[in-house]
Amino acid sequence: CDGPPASMALLGRCLPEGLIAALSEPKALAASSSSGAGESLRANAEEANSSRRRTSSLSSSRLRGNWLALWEAAERDSADPALVWNGVTRTELRDALDREIGGLDVERQREVDAGAAPNAGCATGSGCVSWNHREFYVRYPSLEGEVRIKGTFVRHLIEADSASRVAANDRGKPRPIRDPADFFATAYRELLELADADVAPLGSEQSRRQTKRHMCVQAMTAAYRQQASVIGPFQGAAHVTRLLDLTLDAALRDHLLELCHALVTRDNAPSVVEVNASNMVDEGLVEVLCGVVACSHGAGERQLMPMASNLIAATAHVEPLKVWYFIAGGEECAATSAAALAAFEPWDLQSAAPQGVQCVGPLSRVELRQALSHDKVGGGSHVRAKGMAWEALRDVRELRWMAAQGRRALSPQEAAALALEALLAITNAVPDVDASGDAVRPIPKAKRRLCLPECLPHITQAMLCGDAAVVDRAAQLLLALVRRNPRTLARLYRTGVFYFALAYPGSNLGPIAELLCETHMRQDVTAVPGAGAAAGIAAGSSLSARSALGDLLPESLLQIAESYGASRLAEALAADADTPELIWTRSMREERLVTQISQHLGEFPRVLLERHGATYDFVPIAPVTYPALDDEVWCHRYYLRSLADEERFPGWPIRDVVDVVRALLSAWRAELAKKPMAMTETEAAAELGLDEGWASLPRDKRDTALKKAYRSLAMRYHPDKNPGGLAKFRSARSAYDRLRAGAAGAEGAAPWRVVLLLRAQGACYRRNPSELAPFLYAGFPLLLEELE
């Protein structure tokens, strides 16, 4: 700057770095101060600058440093990442200078009193002393509690970063970090020194320097969010993955998750994101993030959403399921009996524990944690639940995380939403199409890893947590995974995703509707649930028979999805409608669709609350029933009773009327050719294993028993579970359809259906005579047959 190096070094030891930075500000940008002291300081600085320019023998040029800006900055209070400066720090600076001056005066007087010989360079000859300025520095006690990295106050950086993510304009952006790459590297070095103590088996001593460790990670996150392109790719993915997975500090794990999110969500640095994403996949971070997603069901924070159909259940206390077992006696007992434990299934009453082994359980998650806190079970104790083998508690990720200490920075649902965003960014980091739009092969490795059985089920099951942000991001990620990925797309139904998506009772259905529209017609036609699919789907089959949603939604909603797209489907699912094109109400969704899917899923959502790593065992659902549609006939794209109702819907426009008339004629022929169903009700009940008193039950109980019997046989004989059981599965479905049809199943053509088909044809000819005039009516033979 303007002074000799020794003088500028002294200034650096006296003033914070943020104040000295004011010397580099352009002079035109110097801020004005309104205080009287500030005016005096400016006047003095201007006079000093002017005097120096007149008298300096060293240079005739103007001063390069903006000393006026320095004085103004020293007069203002500041609290930002670059500078914390206020009345307290000014007092500490003044006191330090006063003490140093007083000390010099004392030393000078001591020299005089001691009668020391005058220095040859001393003008007064009165015991001159030289100031040891090289060792002088100003200590600011009020700032010693602040964590600083490369001159940046980390706490204020974190606060500014949080505020910037909330702010909607550029005024909310924090001041850029000086030399961000060096800052990031320094913060990571601090983390390496402080955090490795936590990567240790459960029960080991943990580091107590938590605050600085957390702030180091948060500082890295804030720096990367600001200037990822300057910092460049992060080379510590392996260490961060290990630390995120194994740390016993709950808050540190959440902050590491935020760092991982920042590493792959920087839109302004795509090349950097691609390198980071590739490193994360290679180091196994994808699987760890899927573990975070699985824990979205955790902490008992998910609440049953109150609806008209479950108001009592939603407000009542439900006892948690008890699914966990552990071997008492510590690590030594578990280790000596590991081989014998392999075949021991504690929930099976016929399975006996090995001799000398004491099994404790079943326990809920809360009870297991209490046993851990009371040292009844340790990190090396073997634990088990259905669907997993005996493992050491420290090796079960969800239990290791459950045992973590400290207060979390994020809720389980917030952490899951962040992990899903990171996984989506990792998936999109490498394009799955080339410049010409052709699909690339092999499929990018991130997508391949996420489609493995260790990951994909947890993403789909996240929809059951009920959190709007988690559901949205899970649907978006699934959509990205199945695009241009035919193998995963065709078998996606096996994860239960259609049940989980439609069981969600919220109104934010946009991403879910996009996922349904993309996938429901593209499932494996040889194994998709439903009678038509199991029997083989013909080209002219109905939309319900060709869709994976055919057993869940009325065909009118499927038609909206195919004709109008995802946005209209989302609107229709969440709204009430009673038109020729759609009959759907909130009560149909809540009391029929959501309720029947929930009944089909049974205890599985409650199992997830206790064991987050559980995966759904797919079972095809019995078709969802809608009593409001029992008296309706759907044909092509219209409900015929409503279409023919001239009082309620006069002049309702009929799209593609020629195709509608053709469909009506085909339905008419099929109705007239209909024969009584082959099975009797007695035979169908016997096929499903229902007792003789089934038919005398009230309707609701009868329906419940029927679906339970069908579900039991479907679990046993569905082709996905039993390749040799296809014939039995078809027979069970035929029996179910016969009992659902009731007395009408023993009859042929239904007169009321024929009447609706005729009335709908009349409406078509009345409303669109000009469009139908060129065509000869093909229904005369059928009409004459009916008249006769």
Give keywords.
788 residues; mainly alpha; four-stranded antiparallel β-sheet; two-stranded antiparallel sheet; 12 strands; 4% strand
Q: What structural category do the secondary elements indicate?
A: mainly alpha
The largest β sheet comes out as: 4 strands, antiparallel
Task: Name the helicity range.
Answer: 40-55%
The CA-CA distance between the termini, in Å, is: 111 Å
Shape label: elongated
* Quaternary organization: single chain
The value of Rg in angstroms is: 37 Å
User: Which regions have little confidence, pLDDT < 50, spanning 5+ residues?
Assistant: 29-38, 52-61, 197-201, 203-208, 300-316, 527-539
Strands ordered across the widest β-sheet: 6-5-7-8
Summarize the structure.
The chain is mainly alpha-helical.
Structural write-up:
The protein is mostly helical. 52% of the residues lie in helices and 4% in strands. The protein contains 38 helices and 12 strands. It has a 4-stranded antiparallel β-sheet. Strands 1-2 form a two-stranded antiparallel ribbon. The chain has a two-stranded antiparallel ribbon with strand order 3-4. A hairpin with a 2-residue loop joins strand 1 (78-80) and strand 2. Helix 12 packs antiparallel against helix 18 (412-429). The protein is elongated. Residues 29-38, 52-61, 197-201, 203-208, 300-316 and 527-539 have low confidence and may be disordered.
